[in-house]
């Protein structure tokens, strides 16, 4: 494992423990991770936090995707757990208005993900205003320094990676097959 990966993993663990401490200090039980716009890394952050939670064997933390909020009630969760919701981007399409009303009322705070030198200051202010109007305070801001490439580029890179791995896999499989002489 590289030193960079180890460093990143340690920083994510520190972020998770800090968020849990912050939530406990503020009396928050339900935090939503959101960003101003799409592609700012909020879902990547939620996945990393979930991995860190699994690695730490942290049972006081539950993760929910915005897609499943209409299937569960905020009251269904363990009262001693911190629920971290991978929410929608604040200003994309319908934004946060897509959240079920019962969940909008139940969210205690937001972790806002912004991209360094990319996220527009007026857009951040607009998101903050919308959140404040709905009674949802921003409890933390994650300053993302790595802008993700567009989805189409990510898909092409993934396809190329699978093609490369697939060729190696076929070669390895062919090398493992017994020759006709061995049969």
**Helix-strand makeup class:** alpha/beta
Total helices: the number is 5
Largest sheet strand order: 2-3-1-4-5
Q: From the structure provided, what is the oligomeric state, counting identical versus distinct chains?
A: single chain
Radius of gyration: 21 Å
Fraction in beta strands:
15-25%
Largest sheet: 5 strands, parallel
- How far apart the termini lie comes to 40 Å
Outline type = globular
Helix content: 40-55%
Which ranges are low-confidence, i.e. pLDDT below 50, for 5 or more consecutive residues?
172-179
Kindly state the mean pLDDT as a whole number?
A: 79
Give the topology string: H per helix, E per strand.
Answer: HEHEEHEHEH
Number of strands: 5
Which key phrases capture this entry?
5 helices; 45% helix; alpha/beta
Question: Could you please describe the fold and organization of this structure?
Answer:
With 183 residues, the chain is α/β, with parallel strands linked by helices. Helix 4 (121-133) links the parallel strand 4 and strand 5 (138-144). Helix 1 (3-26) crosses helix 2. A five-stranded parallel beta sheet has the order 2-3-1-4-5, sandwiched between helices. It has five helices and five strands; from the N terminus they run αβαββαβαβα. It is globular and about 50 Å long.
List the helices and strands and how they pair.
Layout: H1 3-26, E1 30-35, H2 42-55, E2 61-65, E3 82-86, H3 101-106, E4 109-115, H4 121-133, E5 138-144, H5 151-176
Parallel strand pairs: 1-3, 1-4, 2-3, 4-5
Helix pairs in contact: 1-2
């Amino acid at each position: 494992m590289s030193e960079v990966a180890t460093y990143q993993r340690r920083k994510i663990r520190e972020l998770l423990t800090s968020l849990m401490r912050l939530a406990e200090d503020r009396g928050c039980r339900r935090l939503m991770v959101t960003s101003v716009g799409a592609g700012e890394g909020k879902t990547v952050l939620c996945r990393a936090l979930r991995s860190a939670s699994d690695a730490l064997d942290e049972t006081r933390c539950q993760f929910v995707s915005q897609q499943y909020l209409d299937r569960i009630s905020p009251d269904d969760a363990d009262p001693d757990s911190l629920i971290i919701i991978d929410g929608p981007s604040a200003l994309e399409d319908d934004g946060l208005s897509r959240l079920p009303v019962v969940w909008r009322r139940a969210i205690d705070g937001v972790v806002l993900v912004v991209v360094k030198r990319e996220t527009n200051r007026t857009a951040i202010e607009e998101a903050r205003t919308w959140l404040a109007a709905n009674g949802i305070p921003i409890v933390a801001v994650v300053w993302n320094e790595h802008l993700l490439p567009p989805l189409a580029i990510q898909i092409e890179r993934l396809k190329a990676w699978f093609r490369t791995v697939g060729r190696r896999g076929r070669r390895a499989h062919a090398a493992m097959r017994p020759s006709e002489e061995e049969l």
